[in-house]
Amino acid sequence: MTTSTKLFYVSLFDNDSMPLKMLRDDYTFEMILRNLNLKDRIRVCNIKPEIDRFCKIINLLLLKFILNNSNCELIYGEYGKPKLLNEPYSFNLSDEFGVVSLSICDGSENEVGLDLANPVDIERMVENNNVEKFYRDTFRDIFTSKERKNLDLETIKLDEEGKKILLSKCWALKESYCKYLGLGISGGNGLVDYEFINIPPLSPLENIKEISNGRKGVNYVGSATLQKIEGFLPKNICLTLPKISNTILCSLFSTDLTVDVFQIDCVEFLKSFSKSK
């Protein structure tokens, strides 16, 4: 039977940033925080940047929300990739500047790898808006010699914005594959160890079927077909998350053929965790 990976995402900047206003309320924040164990509460409270702190609390609760399960028990692989204990799902999480995303698929033997990237991050590191110089002086170390040759040819064709998107996509592609393997950047292999010669283009979502989720605040926004990349077992899709104010690129690796994408209303998400127990 063919299955489809599910991709969920939630943004703090929904509804004129109403989620930020909710989380800045001390009482609401405390009520939401109570849904976490003591160790995770301390982790959240020790994060100083506000957006990062709020993203972390959503990150820690998103899986519970999707599975409608307050007791999601996790085990961890050698390099820290989490897995559900006694549940037939594989999942992966990523967050990027106010947006948190979760990919999940059926079957504990399947794997998924997800990473979000923001072209603005490249912009912050670039001096004098010279992306080409940044790429050649700083960013080239994560690529193999063949990848560099291809990127050298590609970057000269693009304007500064196009270069930022391309480099962000390349980063997300490599990072999501490392996460698919359960390694991450710290897993003994660097990003340069995995070579992507033919970088897939950004894929548009298509409303190719109707899916009734039946969950308040969870809205289906489209589906897409994952693409085969030569030399790699899992398939991949690179896309821009739709219907959010900032440009967030998403790279997903999965053995499934398709992905169904859902946007979660952040206000409804926070309300579900801020009710008195």
Total number of helical segments? 9
CATH H-level homologous superfamily name = 4'-phosphopantetheinyl transferase domain
Shape: globular
Strand segment count: 11
User: What's the oligomerization state?
Assistant: single chain
Mean pLDDT: 88
Question: What string gives the helices and strands in order?
Answer: EHHHHEEEEEHHHHEEEEEH
Mind telling me the C-alpha Rg? Answer: 19 Å
Low-confidence stretches: none
Q: Which range best describes the helical content: under 10%, 10-25%, 25-40%, 40-55%, 55-70% or over 70%?
A: 25-40%
| Range of strand content | 15-25%
CATH architecture: Alpha-Beta Complex
Q: If you had to describe this structure to a student in words, what would you say it looks like?
A:
- The chain has 277 residues and is an alpha+beta fold.
- It has a single domain (4-120, 165-273), classed as Ribosomal Protein L22, Chain A.
- It has nine helices and eleven strands.
- The chain has helices at 14-24, 26-33, 38-45, 50-67, 119-125, 131-139, 145-155, 160-180, 266-273; strands at residues 4-11, 74-76, 82-84, 89-96, 99-106, 112-117, 218-225, 227-228, 235-240, 249-254, 258-264.
- The strands form three sheets. Strands 4-5-1-11-7 form a five-stranded mixed sheet. A four-stranded antiparallel sheet has the order 6-10-9-8, covered by helices on one side.
- Helix 3 (38-45) runs antiparallel to helix 4 (50-67), helix 5 (119-125) crosses helix 8 (160-180) and helix 6 packs parallel to helix 8.
- The mean pLDDT is 88.
